[in-house]
Amino acid sequence: MLIPHPLLGLRDAQEFTYLGDANLMNRPDPNAPNAEAMFCDYVFLRDNPAGVHRELWYHEQGDRSWLVVTRNTVTHEILGAELASDVALAHREGSK
Amino acid sequence: MKFSGFKVIKEALTGHKGWTPLWRDPEPQSAYDIIIVGGGGHGLATAFYLAKTFGQARIAVLEKGWLGSGNIGRNTTIIRSNYLLPGNEPFYEFSMKLWEKLEQETNFNSMVSQRGIINLIHTDAQRDAYRRRGNAMRFAGADSVLLSREELREKVPFLNYDNARFPIKGGLMQPRAGTARHDGVAWGYARGADMRGVDIIQNCEVTGFKIEAGKVLGVETSRGFIGAKKVGVAVAGSSSRVMSMAGMRLPIESHVLQAFVSEGLKPTIPGVITFGAGHFYISQSDKGGLVFGGDIDGYNSYAQRGNLPVIEDVLEGGMALMPMIGRARLLRGWGGVMDMSMDGSPIIDRTGIEGLYFNGGWCYGGFKATPASGYAFAHLLATDRPHDTARAYRLDRFAKGYVIDERGAGAQPNLH
C-alpha cells in the first residue's frame, strides 16, 4: 500500500505504524459526570466498519507525523491522507 | 450413513456408488427454538453439542455462504493448549480433551494428529518464561516438557541452532498438541448436527435482528424472517458487522492474517515448530506441504488477502529458523479475517438483549478452540449459565478491569 503523505508524496505503508480508528483523537472530557463510562467506550469499543475507515498512521520511518488516512477496509484502496494536526485544528475551529 | 472400516472397504470394491450426502439441504422453517448465526467451525460445533449433549431440539444454523467458507477453511490447522493465564488455559485444555475424542463423538475422520508443538527458546529470560508457562499448563491438567538444546537437537536437527542473533537454547514442548484436518472438523460437526435434526441452512444471510422491548424475536434473512427464542451469533471475523445490526459496538477490530503452503515434500518436519524470536510457525500437512504463517498485517481489514511486506517478513523468519526451506517453492498464500479483541482473548457471553448471545473475538486462535467454543456456547445457550472453563470470557470484563491479556499489550488489537 502507498500512502499519499500531504507533505512527502506517496510513501510505502511500511514506513508507518498503525494505531487505529481516527476517533481515538477525540478523547472524552475527563471532568464529565459520566467520564468513566465514556473513557471505557473510548479505550475499548470500535465501530470497525467494512468499507471506508478513517484511521491514524504514524510516519515512524519518515517525518514522524501523524496522519489521518481514509482507506477502504474491504479493498485496501487508500482514498486520502491528511495531517492529523490539521484535522485536530479544523475540529477545534469547528467546535468554537 | 455411518462410517466404518467395513463400509470403506465395501465402497472401494463397489465403485464408491453407495455414499450419500453428509447433510440435508433443508428449507428454513418459520421458527426455531435456537438459531445459530454462522455455519463455520464454532457455529456448527455449537449446534452439534446443543443437540447431542444438551438435548435441545428445533435448532437451525444460518450460513451466509457455503458451510465452512470462513476461517474454518482458512487457518493453519494447529491444535494446542499452551496458554499461560488462568482465564485461558483451562478452557484450551478442555478443548484439547474434546479434540482427543472428537472423531469418536462425530464418527468422522477429522485427522486429529497429536504430533506435538515446540516453542523455541532463544534467551535465558525466555526459558524462565516458558518454564512458568509449562507449569501453568500443568496446573490446568495439560502436558508440557521443557527441552534442553541437546534434546531438541535430537528431535529437530535441521534448525539453525547457531544463528548469531537468535541462537536456539531449547524449547517448550506440548506432546499432546498437533494438527487436525480443518475442513474435516466442520464437516464432522455438520454431519453430526444434521443427523440429530439440526437444520443447516446455507446461502441464508442474516440481514437484521427483530428486537422488541429488549428481547430478540428472530432474525431477518435473505430468505425471509425466521423466528427464534434464542439467537447465538458465532461469526468471528464479521462480528462487528453482525452485532451492529443489533445496535452493539464491540471491543473488536477486524484484521487480516495470512498463511502459506509450500509444494508437497517428503516428511521432514515432525510436529509444529514456532520461532521464539520472530513470529513464525510451521508444520507439515499430511499431503506434504509446509504450512506456515506469522504476524497479522496490522491494519483494519475485511479483505481475505494481505499485502507483500508481511509475506516477506514471514519468509525471513522461516529462513532464519530453518534455512533448508529456502529451496522449497511457495505454492500459495491466503488471508483470513480475524476478530482481534482488545485483550487478545475471546468472548462467549450474553448480551444486553434478552435471548441474544455472542461468541467471537477469537483473534488468530479460533481453530484450536473450536470444540470447547462450541461446547461452552451450547452450555450458555441451553442453561443460561457460562461453562466453567469459559467464565472469564465476559463482555463486561473490559469495563470491570478483568481483561485476559496474554501478551500484556493493552487495548491495541494489532499487537496481540
TrEMBL record, chain A:
One of its GO terms (molecular function) is sarcosine oxidase activity. GO terms for biological process: tetrahydrofolate metabolic process. Gene3D superfamilies: Folate-binding superfamily. InterPro entries: SoxD, SoxD_sf. It comes from the Bacteria. This is Sarcosine oxidase, delta subunit. It comes from Celeribacter baekdonensis B30. The lineage of its organism: Bacteria, Pseudomonadati, Pseudomonadota, Alphaproteobacteria, Rhodobacterales.
From TrEMBL, chain B:
It comes from the Bacteria. PANTHER family: FAD-DEPENDENT OXIDOREDUCTASE DOMAIN-CONTAINING PROTEIN 1, SARCOSINE DEHYDROGENASE-RELATED. Gene3D superfamilies: D-Amino Acid Oxidase, subunit A, domain 2 (3.30.9.10), FAD/NAD(P)-binding domain (3.50.50.60). Residues 33-380 form the FAD dependent oxidoreductase domain. It is found in: Cytoplasm. The keyword Ion transport does not apply. This is Sarcosine oxidase beta subunit family protein. The keyword tRNA processing does not apply. GO terms for cellular component: cytoplasm. The lineage of its organism: Bacteria, Pseudomonadati, Pseudomonadota, Alphaproteobacteria, Rhodobacterales. Its main location: cytoplasm. Keywords: Cytoplasm, Nucleotide-binding, Oxidoreductase. InterPro entries: FAD-dep_OxRdtase, FAD/NAD-bd_sf, SoxB. NCBIfam families: soxB (TIGR01373). One of its GO terms (biological process) is tetrahydrofolate metabolic process. It comes from Celeribacter baekdonensis B30. One of its GO terms (molecular function) is sarcosine oxidase activity. Pfam families: DAO.
